[in-house]
User: Fold this.
Amino acid sequence: MDELRNYARELLEKEEVAAVIGYQQVTEKRTKPIVITDPAETSRLVFNEYCLNNLAVYLTKARIRSLMRTKDKTMKLAIVAKPCDVHSIVALIQENQIHRNDVHIISFNCHGVVKDFGCDFNGDNLAAKCIKCETHKPLYFDKIFGEEKQTPKAGDASLEKINELEKLNSKERFEFFKSEFDKCIKCYACRAVCPLCYCQRCITDKAIPRWIESSSHQRGNFSWNIVRAFHLSGRCTGCGECDRACPMDIPLSLINRRMAMEVKDLFSFVSGRSLETPTLVGNFDKKDSDEIFM
Amino acid sequence: MSKQKWEPKIVAFVCNWCTYAGADLAGTSRLKYPANTKIIRVMCSGGIDPVFILKAFERGADGVLVSGCHPNDCHYNAGNFHARRRWDLFHKLLDFVGIEKDRLQFSWISASEGKKFADVITKVTKDIIALGPFKTYQDMNAEFTTVFPEFAEAGNKEIAYEEEMTNG
Amino acid sequence: MSLCYQCGKCSAGCPIRFYMDIAPNKVVRLIQLGLYDEALKSSTPWLCAGCLTCSARCPNNFDLAKFMDAVREIALEKGVEVKEKDILSFHEAFLDQIKMHGRSYEVGLVAEYKMKTLNLLQDVDSAPGMFFKGKLGIMPHNIEDKKSVRDIFKKTSKK
Amino acid sequence: MKIGVFICHCGENISRTVDCPRVAHFAEGLPGVEYSIDYKYMCSDPGQKLIKDAIREHKLDAIVVGSCSPNMHERTFRNAAVSAGINPFLVEIANLREHCSWVHDDVEAATEKAIELVRMAIEKVKRDKPLTKIRVPVTKRVLVIGGGIAGIQAALDIANAGYEVVLVEREPSIGGHMSQLSETFPTLDCSQCILTPRMVEVYQHPKIKLLTYSEVVKVEGFIGNFKATIKKKARHINEDLCSGCGLCITKCPTKKKSYNSFEENLAFRPAVYVPFPQAVPNIPVIDETVCMYYKNGKCGMCVKVCDRGAIDFEQKDTMLVADIGAIIVATGYKLYNIEKATPESKYKGYGEYGYGKYRDVIDGLQFERIASASGPTAGEIKRPSDGKEPKKIVFIQCVGSRDPSKGISYCSKICCMYTAKQAMLYKHKVHDGEAYVFYMDIRAGGKMYDEFVRRAIEEDHVKYIRGRVSKIHEENGKYIVKGEDTIAGMPVEIDADMVVLATAMIPQDNAPKLAQTIGIPYDKHGFYNEAHPKLRPVESTTAGVFLAGACQSPKDIPESVAMASATASKAIILFASDTLEREPVVAKVNEDLCAGCFYCKKVCPFGAIEVRDIKDVNGIIYKEVAYINQGVCQGCGTCTATCLSKSIELAGFNNEEIFAEIAAL
Amino acid sequence: MKPLTGGNMRFGYYPGCSQISSAKEYDLSLKKVIGNLGVSLDELDDWSCCGATSGHVTNHKLANGLAMRNIMLADHQGLDNIVAPCAACYNRLILSQYETFNHPEIKSEIEELLSTKFEKDIGIFNVLELFMKIGLGKIVENRKRELSNLNVACYYGCLLVRPADITKFDDAEEPTSMERIVEATGAKTVDWNHKVECCGAAHSIARRDIVVDLSKKIIDDAIAHGANVMVVACPMCHTNLDMRQRTMKKVYPGHKEFPVLYLTELVGLSLGMNEKELGIDLHYIDFKYDDNIIKNTVA
Assistant:
């Protein structure tokens, strides 16, 4: 922990970065994000199994970006990121939201985080994304801390749910999703927390013409959730923040994960894993499947 | 429709260069196909947004066809390749959320394939009739909805704003 | 069948072409023209050894070997007189053995074939040698589940 | 907004199945429609007058015409609207003929559909915005890619009209396949005798810049304003100093290391070579792969003998950039390699003919070299294996062509003719020889063509056998050709001394790559697609790029030359005016809303999208946004559909207009 | 076709009728050689005849039924793949399976006929593929003898490589996989013409005249190209090329006896086994490896 704090302090003191985005402890089993520009404040930085937030979302926020610009130059942002959060950063870099040189990634060997604040860290309380996680060591970083540790074993409930849904017929699936989406209150927390929802004006806010019905009735909810899922298809890195943020407990990441599985299946592509692989959206292969076309 | 019998409502989004011209050829060849499909012309299959399909369903379409030039034959070289990826994903997504696969169909029809156009329209119409009206979607509760929510009067100010933005 | 554009490559490569009464491509032609009887009574389909040379080399992806199978099948169904009776007898004898035992039984096969064709002296020269070398079993190889094989015969029988 | 609706009967073509008055009457009742009428022939002069008068009288802002396909008369009605003072882009066509009356029988259903089509068009026109055509300047210089007969002809025509030409040829000399041919059908005149003067003319023409041993590596821009990057490969000979004396070639000690590709691998060539004696330019090339200097740094014999000091081992590839107004693609063809199939090759091989295995089984171009007076045998017909004169020769047509199982379904068009020519040449040179031709059909359409084939049969007694050959195998130095005479219904076996295969013409290996570089579509074989099979046969679908010769489909010499001249005139027509008018259907970015993800830039097939920096007061970049170059954008709209935040709109087909159409369903 | 995974080399085994009668030496040598290379074969329980040529030339449905019964057994017995050493069996099995899986109507027809459901695509291998899967290195490693004085004509026959889009293991006109196996034994191979010509096996009994002509041509071509032995991978071919030489001698008085071996026997010889172990003594034309050496050195 001290290593992290010292390192962050040095970065700020030497003016290598404009700010450090990290986690601070709130209670024993709860952390919250903090943006530090004052070297003295680095003592508040922590890293542990309660660092749930995907801080990559802050990289595109205008107020934080404004910290990067001084009178005469652009400075870097440092970010404390779990290996899975690095995936989001990779996706952001690929989508030109931040240049690799403008972000200083401080990462950790990770063995998982809890599913919610206040839980004890064990197999039963492991966050869903950690169960299937294959990246315990970050794929890209500028500084790495921590030792490799075993991740507790746990059952993959969301995969089971997907398989269960697969077995239903169209009508039953439609009913399932209709009832789930029916809960939506259009608070857009899912959008706010998603690192890849960085648009300055979301499609759902476009008024003329009105792309997505803004009322939170069944049909409007259905459109919004489908468009959200589609816009993330091939881009979502599976951080699961939407699930955590949804006040109505709609299993949003279920669709995201299902689409990620399709993407892997159809195009052998996984988002946010490599800076060199061309993005799925915006590129094509002449050998892509022609199956659905008559 | 004034008729007693239910007739499916089908929308076809087609590209200007291949499928639209193929449909013209079907006409000049006097081929016959069911009258349920209305064509909306765009420049390229790459320019069709998936939201158009949702909009069509919202507006009571029972089925949608998307059609463009064959791969490597695109007037714009690559638009249809991008479209192919997009539709493959979108089709899978709709399938997962429970929209029957045949509600949304795809084809490549070139300017010389008038016969194929007629065949595809006939097939799609048959498939949609077999599926019946798209009640599941149409019956979704949509209270507070005005007739043309896309162009609500209240939005007039926004029109001015958007225009200003777009035209710089 | 409309795939065949009569280039003759099948006939050119057919190993048994010299023994046939009409060229394989002509059999296709006759059927293309609707002259079924002429085609069905030719020896060509029966002499076809099913070596697939024609199908492998056909420029227009027409599977002539399979087509010949179909011609024979139709000829049998229609009861057309078969020119190469010996060959048919052999096939029938062979299949009878399978029907009976589940596997081919060569002594039985040859015996039945000879009964059918009255061609008693053929192969007497090689048989003793084969017996001697222990290649021809005295007893047929029966499989356990003969019924299942017989069922296949029964269900697919055209008679 | 006041809208006028005009429903055309098209004589009876529409009104037979669509109740036109009812459609017009229905439209009248729709909100925004000021005036609605039906008429027998809307495209006729009185029909157009009706529209113009209605526009003036009722002060219409926009019109909808229910008529034939917009591909037929959109322009007519737009012009009518313009003359009555309406912007041409406030005219919408409802396709009531091709998409409705002609394809439906039931009057009720067709009328219902017609009403909906008209309603959709009305909703769209309500949201249409007036647009003005875009004008762009033209660079009056042509890039011709390929220096075969087609490229030579196009370059000369354009240069003679007074415009500059950059002619790029991949090989060290121009001339193409025609320079390899012995004699040409149906006149039997010497190919090189008619070609070489043209080659020299190209070399000496002041308006033509000839770049041999060069390749086009990049093309940017759009009609009238292309920018081409050309790689000039290192010849290792200084072109300015070389006098073409050829001493380096005669003295080069590395004589038998590489096959002579001009002689179709029937001979060897030294490490420093000119492809053939009449090459233009007559400047050698050093083949790095075999030259001893590049192997071990020794030798340098050529340096010693060259009194001009033209040898330059250190020469590097150079890049040239040229501003270009139009591009003519004339990259020609190659022959299908019929050896064994490899996993990478698109086509299957012809193992049954033993090409590559038997040295005396050769292809058509190899025979051309053998029959050519300048060829490896000085025009005497000899077998490659032992140099003996073949007394029995078999020609096989359609090897690869019309053979879907090997991957080629088309007819290569020239093989019937050149096989007849080659058989004739053989008979003229080997008087006691026998020549057989296996064919499937004789396709000899052309002036004096069929007469030519008959001459081969009647006067030169070439024996034509109808049937494909199944297999060739070697037996005691003879090649047993197994065929079937399908006319006689008899199997045929010929023990030939030599076999010539008329193999299919296929596109050059790098045809798809070049197509992608230029941005033109190609078919599954790799032949470039013309814009319209009948009416625009020499234009590609990309404006300003024209196609000449066999790169578009198999062609003989006169056709290639005719096509080349046609492309030249297309280019010259383009240069007749100083600026170009373009349809204003282009995309535009809302920079305030653009999030700068640049997916649009990735999908744009034309590279029309650029990065534009938005800076703060201190001049520090705070945002990058997409910017669409209106001159380059072709208006496909792929970017609009890809844009996640819907910050791009395509003029003429904007999302509001399409939504209106959907809403009107 | 499914790739094999892991080091555990086990294959299902479909012998075919010839293997237990007229070609028992093929069966014998195959088992010996494969065992020697550390691979085991699980024989399919209660397998039945594939129907051979007689099946598909007279009744298509019957032919598919007979072949698919064995595929069904393999599936039920948990085999992922089966080796069919006879080219005819191999061809029948692979074609029937291909048809079944690529034509839904044939699939339902056969499923109804056999009252089963076909889901798993069983890998069907011929002997050449089997050796390739085992790895030619294995043969070289275990080689006890260099067969360098053998000039081998590799005869594939018609059914092994055709149709190439379905069998998918070698070129249809100029296959080379058998050559590579033979070369692994240290023997030399000859380049000859009639590698994939048909010997007419289907008419072996009914039209012996045809078969003798065709086989004679094949043998003559091999001899003309300098071969001193021929290697085959099919019991039908062997019967025609070996046993029919007796008749050949009568029809063509000048005919000289020419030895024809199974591929497995040749590999067996290189692994140091003797003629008797491999069943070579059961052939009509005698072949003794040692004699061959003497003949070659003397000549």
Remarks:
- The first helix of chain A runs from residue 2 to 13.
- The beta strands of chain A are 17-27, 30-36, 45-46, 76-81, 103-108, 143-145.
- The longest strand of chain A covers residues 17-27.
